[in-house]
Amino acid sequence: MEILLVDDEVYTIRILQTAIDWESHGVGQVWSALGVARAKEIVKEHPVDLIICDIEMPKETGLDFLTWIRENRYDTEMILLTCHTDFSYAKQALGLGAYDYCVKPIIVEDIERVIAEALAHIQEKRKMRQAWEEKDYLERRRRIVDRNFWRNTLEGRSGDSPDELLTQAKENNIRLELDDTFCMALFSAKFVDLAGETEPTDYLKITQDYFDQIDPETVLVENVSRDKWTVLMKNRAPLEFRKLCMDYLVMQRKKRELRLIGCYQTGLYCEELVPAYKKLHETEMMMTFYQENLWDVCRVEQEKLVDVELTADMEQLLYSGRFAEFADHLDNYLQKKQWKHPVSVAALYTLRADICQSLDVYLKGRGISAHSLLLDEELCRRMNESTVSVEHMMRFVRCLAQVVPYENDVTDITNAVKKYIFQHLSEDIVRDSIAEALYMNVDYIARVFKRDTGMSISQYINRERINQAKLLIATSDMPVGDVAESVGYTNFSYFSKIFKQFENCTPREYKLRMKGTAMK
């Protein structure tokens, strides 16, 4: 053990160092400090077990030091020394967590007795901590053995007969009887919240803690990706088990905004566990999230899963580009469908394919590039998540309504092109950059724009640049070369050529003309 002596009087430290047989108390190192500042440095650098410290010291007192020790959570005991017999000092020291206190002048026999008691107390704490750590280790080890045994069992690696399973259970010190019945539930989590962010958490431990409160022998088995876990309980009534699982789903939803889906089977004997485990996974793969879903595998097998398909009205809305209306119709349709029966993942995959096919017809008819839409990260993410649940499907569709351009008539396209040119007039504008920004085919945009305005896109860009240049020349003192650059021309000769085509004079002649007009 290591001891620290703290006092502003060297005499007191010398008495404690020499008068006490530290070695006989199991102390291997005795540190000393003439003030709290140095004492703190020693505590930071060495694992001090016991501190003997004077209360009345300049700058920082022993009580200040004790407060610092507790605030920083150092695992050490402290005996305080004081010249005062007033009990208020002792009360304050003990209130801060001091082991004991002694009154100066020091009586060696008295303080040695207190030191011996403190060291014995420290030893006892260590033994208790070690015992708890060993118990915790054994418990964790037991969990690992149980989990590995049941994982092997559920995955069919523990033998084909009940006798083989019972033998292996006995070898692993696992209590298992031939007449035991099991309830099993598989929970699946998609770590996607409403903002689309992932939040990896130790849900296995959270789940284990929840079910341990009910039955410490509950076994949890997780899959490799840690987004699915199986709960296995022995000898539970089916309705009781269902309620436990439903309460667990609701708890996770309220506390962590975690969307879980669960499916379960009850009344299983040990020889039925392997096929039941496989069936749980097959069922989970088919199911989508809807509120706090908990599906009975047997009921799902008996019921027909809902098929979903686009109606003729919805297809027409897509073909005409009325995406907001389509989203409202689809939302109502899906809500009615899933109210009666579960909507499967396969159904959502089919629905997404139908939507994308109809969308492709709309886009091709208007020269819009479907590939360019995929550059939108939000839309891509929503589309990838659309088969998780009906809710996720609707997020995808509503995002689609915001991203895909809706063509009322050619004027909408023309105005969109003009707006883009106005916002990027000083930049190097090419037709491809306009088409990419509008998610449309470049040749289609060019045809529509010329048909609507009577000029090509490049002619319109030059006209707008020259109009802007004229305004700057007439209203500012900018040199003509700077004006050219500000409206997107890096070559002054080319700027002059284009300017003359529109105004029948050079930029400099135009500037002189404007000055002459202003003087008149």
From TrEMBL:
<dbReference type="InterPro" id="IPR018062">
    <property type="entry name" value="HTH_AraC-typ_CS"/>
</dbReference>
<dbReference type="Pfam" id="PF00072">
    <property type="entry name" value="Response_reg"/>
</dbReference>
<keyword id="KW-0597">Phosphoprotein</keyword>
<dbReference type="GO" id="GO:0043565">
    <property type="term" value="F:sequence-specific DNA binding"/>
</dbReference>
<feature type="domain" description="HTH araC/xylS-type">
    <location>
        <begin position="415"/>
        <end position="513"/>
    </location>
</feature>
<comment type="function">
    <text>May play the central regulatory role in sporulation. It may be an element of the effector pathway responsible for the activation of sporulation genes in response to nutritional stress. Spo0A may act in concert with spo0H (a sigma factor) to control the expression of some genes that are critical to the sporulation process.</text>
</comment>
<keyword id="KW-0805">Transcription regulation</keyword>
<dbReference type="GO" id="GO:0000160">
    <property type="term" value="P:phosphorelay signal transduction system"/>
</dbReference>
<dbReference type="InterPro" id="IPR018060">
    <property type="entry name" value="HTH_AraC"/>
</dbReference>
<keyword id="KW-0804">Transcription</keyword>
<keyword id="KW-0238">DNA-binding</keyword>
<dbReference type="Pfam" id="PF12833">
    <property type="entry name" value="HTH_18"/>
</dbReference>
<dbReference type="InterPro" id="IPR020449">
    <property type="entry name" value="Tscrpt_reg_AraC-type_HTH"/>
</dbReference>
<dbReference type="InterPro" id="IPR001789">
    <property type="entry name" value="Sig_transdc_resp-reg_receiver"/>
</dbReference>
<dbReference type="InterPro" id="IPR011006">
    <property type="entry name" value="CheY-like_superfamily"/>
</dbReference>
<feature type="modified residue" description="4-aspartylphosphate">
    <location>
        <position position="54"/>
    </location>
</feature>
<feature type="domain" description="Response regulatory">
    <location>
        <begin position="2"/>
        <end position="119"/>
    </location>
</feature>
<dbReference type="GO" id="GO:0003700">
    <property type="term" value="F:DNA-binding transcription factor activity"/>
</dbReference>
<dbReference type="InterPro" id="IPR009057">
    <property type="entry name" value="Homeodomain-like_sf"/>
</dbReference>
<protein>
    <recommendedName>
        <fullName>Stage 0 sporulation protein A homolog</fullName>
    </recommendedName>
</protein>
